[in-house]
Amino acid sequence: MPTSANLDATFQALSDPTRRAILARLAQGEASVMELAEPFDMSQPAISKHLKVLENAGLISRGRDAQRRPCKLEAQPLAEATGWLIEYRKYWESQFDRLDDLLDELKRLEAMTGKT
């Protein structure tokens, strides 16, 4: 079960479209900071700040390959956030099931009274 602090860090990191785009790129494979910065109209230090947020949330890690420090997606925090959201989906599904039951009951009562 993820801690509240872990979920806070994950959702805070995911709240920015640039960071989500970086994660989408890293889902295709490792990339250097320069490669990650290419599609964005921002400085490399600005990209590095986004990477730091993602790294602090545990969503990416950085390795070392000679002169290169490739970034890699770490999916565990995303899996934990998904698990948290699934619990709320279950709640809403049960609420919709109750609403369906109520509507079925109302239809049945209308049919009994001839008001359909």
TrEMBL record:
<dbReference type="InterPro" id="IPR036388">
    <property type="entry name" value="WH-like_DNA-bd_sf"/>
</dbReference>
<dbReference type="Pfam" id="PF01022">
    <property type="entry name" value="HTH_5"/>
</dbReference>
<dbReference type="InterPro" id="IPR036390">
    <property type="entry name" value="WH_DNA-bd_sf"/>
</dbReference>
<feature type="domain" description="HTH arsR-type">
    <location>
        <begin position="1"/>
        <end position="93"/>
    </location>
</feature>
<protein>
    <submittedName>
        <fullName>Metalloregulator ArsR/SmtB family transcription factor</fullName>
    </submittedName>
</protein>
<dbReference type="InterPro" id="IPR011991">
    <property type="entry name" value="ArsR-like_HTH"/>
</dbReference>
<dbReference type="InterPro" id="IPR001845">
    <property type="entry name" value="HTH_ArsR_DNA-bd_dom"/>
</dbReference>
